Amino acid sequence: MKKLKRSARLVEMTQYLLFRPHTLIPLTTFADRYNSAKSSISEDLAIIKEVFEEEGLGDLQTLAGAAGGVKFIPKVSKAASLMFIQGICKQLEQPERILPGGYMYMSDIMGQPFILNEVGKMFATAFSSKDIDVVMTVETKGIPIAYATASFLNLPVVIVRRDNKVTEGSAVSINYVSGSNKRIQTMSLSRRAMKEESRVLIIDDFMRVGGTVHGMMDLLKEFKATVKGVGVFVESGEVEEHLVEEYISLAKLSAVDPKTKQITVVPGNYFYDGV
User: N or C: which end of the chain has fewer CB within 10 A?
Assistant: First the structure.
């Protein structure tokens, strides 16, 4: 690559780091890429690190030694996240979102890239300290959030199917009890989708009782996998007890009145002290 002026190099380096989160990049990569001395690259990275921290974009970690380099860890502050989620809560409280059976319409929100991007960044921040191999979700509505989260963690996504598909090859299937209607349902995962003993982050868009998430946990036992965390965009507060004990929620549906069409949505447990 041709030699760039420092201003141009800073812009290009920043973009390079933003598109490669949680990836260790040796200083020689930048030195060769920009035909610059390592000392100059180190000075540039110090400037980028300072801006990232001041603007709340994340951390730029430096690892010393022959195998060292820099690693960008995307993060967003809880204060900024809370402000964003409060706006989402107001959108979710619109009366026309109430569906038969007490369900909530969220597909329009799930279809907005900016919202998905922010939600994914929040989950990536919450679980950044966990040692995770894959992000898992069940088809279909949780898929966009799972991919948004995985993009900031730089991890692959594994999708659990409701029915085994021929194109998936050999699969492991289990029956589980749906928490909302107590019906026995089936979920399956291709044997090729994930290695055994993987460390998994489960992401879902909505959790009422937690039957689907609990089913995914049971399915993961067949792969000898370890659940490192569970992230839920919206949880229902209308149930006395969830089947899943440890999870992080960004919003909580605390009350729904189908007659008056009043909905109350508040920030989730991620914003409580100690979570």
Answer: N
